[in-house]
User: Which sequence fits this backbone?
């Protein structure tokens, strides 16, 4: 069996005719270049050949039985592979329950519902629908900090701070989201508690715009989350 350093393993990236190699548990495996699952050294649009996939295997939908499709060709020696940041025990327990995809459904559903209620209130001049829209956003805003926190922990520990376009987009949208949600709540409070008549005018219009923008924001977050979880197969 061949002994590989970390630098030598990187050469097995599957590009330009180079072999497709990856490490798992200190062993090095080679995948056939004819494999449709490892085209150009990329597996499921996420896992790159020439790297240590030990941690990735733990979070994959399949088990180590998938290694039977690869050939054991060597071991990792000499220079170690980059260390993996391991989460504290409480974070590891939390992430094992997949809290981010669970909690993210609430802000998405509530914000979209709020936007629909807001549009109905405009079209039919129904204050009750505007109130319903507001209360939906109150609940969404309450859940949002936990959703953002679990998303950050998942990105840091499960995805090792991956710097892809999808993650950059989610980080930017997650920064903007609290501002739009808090803006909605502040505008609503100003209109209904500091004015004497039914809200109208530019501030009222801005309120509805922010409600709709908040819904578009969370839908975009869900879209990019879907691209991370179910990457396109190439």
Assistant:
């Amino acid at each position: 069996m061949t002994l590989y350093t970390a630098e030598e393993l990187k050469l097995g990236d599957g590009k330009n005719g180079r072999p497709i190699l990856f490490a798992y548990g200190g062993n090095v495996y080679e995948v056939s270049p004819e494999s449709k699952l490892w085209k150009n050294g990329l597996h499921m649009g996420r896992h790159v050949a020439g790297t240590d996939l030990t941690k990735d295997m733990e979070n994959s939908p399949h088990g180590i039985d998938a290694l039977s499709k690869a050939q054991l060709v060597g071991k990792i020696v000499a220079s170690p592979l980059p260390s993996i940041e391991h989460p504290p025990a409480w974070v590891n327990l939390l992430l094992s329950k997949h809290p981010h995809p669970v909690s993210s459904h609430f802000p998405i559903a509530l914000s979209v519902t709020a936007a629909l209620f807001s549009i109905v209130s405009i079209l039919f001049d129904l204050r009750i629908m505007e109130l319903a829209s507001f209360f939906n956003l109150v609940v969404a805003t309450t859940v949002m900090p936990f959703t953002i926190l679990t998303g950050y922990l998942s990105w840091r520990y499960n995805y090792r701070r991956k710097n892809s376009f999808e993650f950059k987009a989610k980080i930017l949208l997650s920064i903007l989201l609290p501002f739009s949600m808090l803006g909605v709540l502040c505008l609503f409070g100003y209109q209904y508690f500091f004015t004497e008549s039914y809200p109208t005018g530019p501030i009222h219009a801005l309120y509805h715009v922010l409600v709709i923008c908040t819904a578009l924001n969370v839908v975009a977050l869900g879209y990019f989350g879907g691209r991370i979880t179910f990457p396109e197969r190439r």
About this structure: Strands lie at 2-4, 20-24, 27-31, 42-43, 47-48, 71-76. DSSP finds seven helices and six strands in the chain. The helical segments are 6-10, 54-58, 89-96, 99-124, 127-158, 165-193, 202-229.
